[in-house]
UniProtKB/TrEMBL annotation:
Protein name (record): LysR family transcriptional regulator
Domain of life: Bacteria
Gene3D superfamilies given in the database record: 3.40.190.290, Winged helix-like DNA-binding domain superfamily/Winged helix DNA-binding domain (1.10.10.10)
Pfam families: HTH_1 (PF00126), LysR_substrate (PF03466)
Presence of keyword Transcription: yes
Alphabetic keyword roster: DNA-binding, Transcription, Transcription regulation
Domain HTH lysR-type as annotated: residue spans: 3-60
Source species: Alishewanella jeotgali KCTC 22429
Stated family: Belongs to the LysR transcriptional regulatory family.
Length: 297
């Protein structure tokens, strides 16, 4: 019989990510194996938890009810593991971290050699993804998230602000002009990030709370901030990205910041999220304190 906890993890991840394949990848399982786990869970329960089609997954009424129970159970298992691990005062063992792709590559990965020198008995698994994964269901010890935090039972520590920057290459601005007003963006080639709600459907959000929607269009959309950065440096158009993605390009002069009459949206900062257990394992405490010391502003 397939492991019941893994079946629950697959179900929670699939509900969170909207895809069985994505749930399988998050748990290092093939799409076929992820489907087997979900089938086994539904057969054991005698109900359908998800409406599945080639385009989308949708929770059934039973699935809606069961999802909350699964999350509570997985949280309790994670807390039980953490409490036992925390009995050791030494930072040791596998530490699984879920980090946004660009932030992890540019700001977390370069710090890891120093962390490993301090804590040589800790093995790190760095999961880089811009898709919002369920931390408890995915078995992650901690995660970094950008923006306003949704209500959850997870604990958090702040890493500082994360301002947005509107910018383009000097060559692009010299050729097409520098917009001074938000309405002028409609005449420019605006390169959008597809995983952000504030850049979907041909609108970019400005104002501290994103209350001003500005119509834009462009010949490139991507699910990678680094891809948009490279295109902007090459002179393809204007990008609207977090400071951590464009900071070096702005400092080197490869990009030039554009200031409009509207303020850029306030994303809500950078946060470390971790399990709510009262006794965090030493490896988790060590990494949280290390990142706060290195990155918090």
């Amino acid at each position: 019989m397939l492991d019941r906890l893994t079946s629950m993890q697959i179900f929670v991840e699939a509900a969170s990510l909207g895809s069985l394949s994505a749930a399988g990848r998050a748990l290092k399982l093939s799409p076929a194996m992820a489907s087997k786990y979900l089938d086994a869970l539904e057969n054991r329960l005698g109900v359908k938890l998800l409406h599945r089609s080639t385009r989308q997954l949708r929770l059934t009424d039973a699935g809606e009810d069961y999802l909350g129970s699964c999350r509570r159970i997985l949280q309790q298992v994670a807390e039980a593991d953490a409490e036992i691990t925390a009995l050791s005062s030494e930072a040791i063992g596998l530490l699984r971290m879920n980090i946004p792709l660009s932030f992890g590559a540019h700001y977390i990965a370069p710090l890891l050699p120093e962390f490993s020198q301090r804590y040589p008995l800790v093995e790190i698994e760095l999961g880089l993804s811009d898709q919002q994964q369920d931390i408890l269901a995915g078995g992650w010890d901690l995660a970094v998230r950008i923006g306003q935090l949704s209500d959850s039972n997870l604990k958090s520590r702040g890493l500082g602000n994360c301002p947005m920057r509107l910018c383009a290459a000097p060559a692009y601005l010299q050729r097409y002009g520098t917009p001074q007003h938000s309405s002028e963006l409609a005449r420019h080639n605006c390169l959008s990030y597809t995983l952000s709600a504030m850049q979907r459907s041909g609108n970019w959000a400005f104002g501290r709370q994103g209350e001003h929607k500005v119509n834009v269009k462009g010949n490139l959309q991507a699910n990678s901030g680094d891809a948009l950065l490279a295109a902007a440096i090459g002179g393809q158009g204007i990008i609207y990205q977090p400071d951590f993605i464009v900071r070096q390009a702005l400092a080197s002069g490869q990009l030039q910041e554009i200031r409009l009459e509207l303020p850029n949206i306030d994303l809500g900062g950078l946060h470390i999220l971790f399990h709510p257990s009262r006794s965090q394992p030493a490896k988790v405490r060590a990494m949280i304190d290390f990142l706060v010391a290195k990155l918090a502003t």
